Amino acid sequence: MKVCEIFKSIEGEGIRMGQAAVFVRLHGCNLRCSYCDSMYAVEGPDFKQMSVGEVLAAVEMYRNESGVKCVTLTGGEPLIHEGVGELLTAFSDAGFEVNIETNGTVPCKWQLPGLFYTMDWKCKSSGMSARMKMENIISLGKNDVLKFVVGSVEDLQEAEGVVARLSLTSPDNMPHIFISPVWGELTNEQIVNWMVGSKVMTQNNARFQVQLHKIVWDPDMRGV
Fold first, then answer.
1. Hey, how many other C-beta atoms are within 10 angstroms of the C-beta on 220?
2. Has this prediction a pTM greater than 0.85?
3. pLDDT (tens digit, 9 = 90+) per residue, 145-167?
4. Domains and CATH numbers, the chain
């Protein structure tokens, strides 16, 4: 499979924010979001072909060196890759705790010990909202994450509508809900004020977050 980079850092967002993890970034994506901050993993030649065994060995090296047991599989879009099921099985069998970051267009069909999904719902400002599939969101469970990256008031309203629909469809199986800003667009204050005033978001325990790695390091820095 096409691997853009493997590195150790902290989780910048989501349920494990701030926790050490090994990142495996696969190359290639079926979307072209307006605010994408990792286009080097979407287009171009910045990758190398690696087998499942080679990827696992690289991740095992980090565990042997520092004891890290958390892995984040990201992209691009990792679930479009041939062999990703084999890779996820290998991580699970090896005892890693794997966060699969996915863009909401691909079914989350692998349910293995130690795996959970962080799924995006791409709102209107991404330019990709028409590609979203509610049936993929409904497949999420209590240990998974549904994330909205918002760049406008219209995006906030769209996120609220999706959460409202999901809470009616799957009231006893709601994922963790996170809202974060498109970097440099809506202010943190605007989003938080809106969230605390939203009954839907409050009732479903939605949480505000920022991309922590863009605060710790330069926002354009790779490998962090």
1. 7
2. yes
3. 999 999 999 999 999 999 999 99
4. 2-216 (3.20.20.70)
